[in-house]
């Protein structure tokens, strides 16, 4: 795992990480403190305000509340701004490892903790892809906005899929390394097992 505190994994570019029909984002986290709001501790982000609302973010805060947010659109393709699935407060504790995930399947935004769905919000008409900024782990991707929203603690096993994983697949893979060559729809996978240096391997 990597330890985060006002720090992040930075990307200068990315490929295949801006889906607009379906997505799943997964990670293991062990927070050492929470921000005041459920949007204060960024786990993985690829969204924008400065160049128009778009993209997605997995985040937490507010005494252990997990949140997955995407930029939704209506049936004309027009943005309806942010659509979130948010777990109840106190769903997680500090200094404890949790597997967290957020997904969008073309119908609903969902959020999961340890493979259990904690919330779902309807979004039937699609999401707007986040193409303005490269993805970041541990802070917002849009550097022009709210750069206090760092994650504080450990993050491990970050994965991005261009499809919505069913609960059965989340539970089958959440507590193990996976072989990327055997997966369908896996577009980003960071194990954080490098051990030294300043570059992480996808």
Shape: globular
The stretches of 5 or more residues where confidence is low (pLDDT under 50) are none
Number of helices: 1
Largest sheet: 7 strands, antiparallel
- Class from secondary-structure proportions: mainly beta
Name the helicity range: under 10%
Order of helices and strands: EEEEEEEEEEEHE
Ends: how far apart? 14 Å
Cα gyration radius (Å): 15 Å
Q: Write down the overall mean pLDDT.
A: 95
- According to DSSP, the number of beta strands is 12
Describe the structure.
The model has no long low-confidence stretch (mean pLDDT 95). The strands form 2 sheets. Strands 1, 2, 7, 8, 9, 11 and 12 form a 7-stranded antiparallel β-sheet that branches. A 5-stranded antiparallel β-sheet has the order 6-5-4-3-10, with no helix packed on it. The chain has one helix at 167-173, and strands at 2-4, 23-31, 41-48, 54-61, 65-73, 79-86, 98-104, 108-113, 116-122, 136-137, 153-161, 186-190. By secondary structure, it is mainly β. The longest helix is centred in the C-terminal third of the chain and has 7 residues, at 167-173. Helix content is 3%, strand content 40%. The chain has 1 helix and 12 strands.
Question: Main traits of this protein?
Answer:
202 residues, mainly beta, five-stranded antiparallel sheet, 1 helix, 40% strand
Write the layout of secondary structure elements.
Layout: E1 2-4, E2 23-31, E3 41-48, E4 54-61, E5 65-73, E6 79-86, E7 98-104, E8 108-113, E9 116-122, E10 136-137, E11 153-161, H1 167-173, E12 186-190
């Amino acid at each position: 795992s990597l330890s985060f505190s006002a720090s992040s994994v930075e990307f200068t570019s990315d490929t295949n990480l801006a889906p607009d029909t379906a997505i799943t984002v997964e990670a293991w986290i062990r927070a050492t403190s929470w921000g005041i709001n459920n949007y204060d501790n960024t786990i993985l982000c690829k969204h924008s305000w400065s160049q128009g609302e778009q993209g997605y973010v997995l985040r937490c805060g507010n005494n252990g509340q997990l949140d997955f947010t995407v930029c939704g659109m209506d049936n004309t393709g027009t943005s309806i701004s942010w659509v979130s699935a948010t777990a109840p407060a106190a769903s997680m504790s500090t200094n404890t490892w949790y597997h967290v995930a957020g997904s969008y399947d073309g119908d609903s935004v969902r959020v999961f903790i340890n493979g259990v769905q904690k919330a779902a919000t309807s979004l039937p008409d699609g999401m707007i892809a986040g193409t303005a900024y490269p993805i970041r782990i541990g802070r917002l991707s849009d550097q022009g906005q709210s750069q206090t929203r760092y994650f504080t603690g450990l993050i491990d096993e970050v994965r991005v899929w261009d499809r919505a994983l069913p609960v059965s697949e989340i539970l089958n893979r959440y507590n193990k390394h996976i072989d990327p060559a055997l997966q369908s729809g896996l577009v980003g996978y960071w194990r954080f097992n490098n051990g030294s240096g300043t570059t992480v391997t996808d």
